[in-house]
Amino acid sequence: xxxxxxxxxxxxxxxxxxxxxxxxxxxxxxxxxxxxxxxxxxxxxxxxxxxxxxxxxxxxxxxxxxxxxxxxxxxxxxxxxxxxxxxxxxxxxxxxxxxxxxxxxxxx
Length: 108
What we know:
The protein has helices spanning 6-18, 68-71; strands at residues 3-4, 24-32, 36-44, 52-56, 59-63, 75-81, 84-90, 94-97, 104-106. The two termini are 15 Å apart. It is of the alpha/beta class. Strands 3-2-5-4 form a four-stranded mixed sheet. The chain contains two helices and nine strands, in the order βαββββαββββ.
């Protein structure tokens, strides 16, 4: 199960409210970078039969079947540090990441 911090819930609610066609946030992984995978975020506008839909505090996350095992037990956070703000992925499945922090490898 993927969970969101209160800060992430608030940010996703703000984002989805601004995009009429969005039903939630699509989160996944793509093969990328020197360590294997990168996170991918987009607006979810549809849900396929193979997607998993996770609802928390009125927010829907849509995850494709390939990404779900890699993201299982992850916590999505949203942090503000000075002028910077971004989603943070607290994923216990990650065993290493590249030096720039853009890609990672997993135990599964």
